[in-house]
């Protein structure tokens, strides 16, 4: 949204949008992130395709971290309707959707990674940098971490350089922070789901 920052006026946000899309394509290109077999309806013919639309309303530090958390939460709440594939005598196939809106399957998000951004400032690195801290950083490392602490991808951003020793230190910090991030996120998601229909509705759909 152009309201996020004046830089997004007109077509100003397209470059960032492309960078976000490419980064998350790399993060989710790993087969271990989501069980793609659960999205299969009819092998080699039909499958569910998931689209994620991201709208930035405020731009201020660690965008990739926030988006990755939102994506995992959205996938956790995703329900995929159960379908049956019916075949007639002539061999043509027809997909039948279940009439029961609650007859659906859920995605396993245990291996969906979250991104941790580590900004290098001097000889140190900072997690969850503020706008002022980001302004002092010439290089950052984006690390995608699973709930078990496995690193699935890394990406350096910024014009500065990172020495190998710093990279290893940032990887260890990212793994530790990522695991605690997953625990905190899953706790919130479970608490919200346990509320059921008594959950407070917010936003324009409330």
UniProtKB/TrEMBL annotation:
First-listed, main subcellular location of the protein, grouped into a coarse class: cytoplasm
Keyword rRNA processing included in the entry's annotation: yes
One annotated GO molecular function: mRNA 3'-UTR AU-rich region binding
UniProtKB keywords: Cytoplasm, Exosome, rRNA processing
Subcellular localization: Cytoplasm; Nucleus, Nucleolus
One Pfam family from the record: RNase_PH_C
Gene Ontology, cellular component aspect: cytoplasmic exosome (RNase complex); nuclear exosome (RNase complex); nucleolus
Family statement: Belongs to the RNase PH family.
SUPFAM superfamilies: Ribonuclease PH domain 2-like (SSF55666), Ribosomal protein S5 domain 2-like (SSF54211)
InterPro entries named in the record: ExoRNase_PH_dom1, ExoRNase_PH_dom2, ExoRNase_PH_dom2_sf, Exosome_comp_Rrp42_subfam, PNPase/RNase_PH_dom_sf, Ribosomal_Su5_D2-typ_SF
Domain of life (superkingdom): Eukaryota
Domain Exoribonuclease phosphorolytic: 4-81, 111-176
Official protein name in the record: Ribosomal RNA-processing protein 42
Any GO BP: nuclear mRNA surveillance
């Amino acid at each position: 949204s152009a309201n996020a920052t004046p830089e997004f006026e007109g077509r100003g946000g397209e470059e960032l949008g492309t960078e976000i899309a490419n980064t998350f394509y790399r993060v989710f290109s790993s087969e271990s992130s989501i069980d793609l077999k659960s999205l299969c309806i009819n092998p080699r013919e039909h499958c569910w395709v998931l689209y994620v639309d991201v709208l930035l309303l405020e731009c201020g530090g660690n965008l990739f971290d926030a988006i990755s958390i939102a994506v995992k939460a959205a996938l956790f709440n995703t329900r995929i309707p159960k379908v049956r594939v019916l075949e007639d005598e002539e061999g043509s196939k027809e997909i039948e959707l279940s009439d029961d809106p609650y007859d659906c399957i859920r995605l396993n998000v245990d291996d969906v990674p979250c991104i941790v951004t580590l900004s290098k400032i001097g000889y140190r690195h900072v997690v969850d940098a503020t706008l002022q801290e980001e302004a002092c950083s010439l290089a950052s490392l984006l690390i995608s971490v699973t709930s078990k602490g496995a690193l699935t991808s890394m990406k350096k951003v910024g014009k500065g350089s990172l020495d190998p020793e710093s990279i290893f230190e940032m990887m260890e910090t990212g793994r530790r922070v990522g695991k605690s991030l997953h625990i905190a996120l899953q706790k919130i998601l479970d608490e919200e789901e346990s509320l059921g229909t008594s959950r407070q509705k917010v936003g324009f759909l409330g």
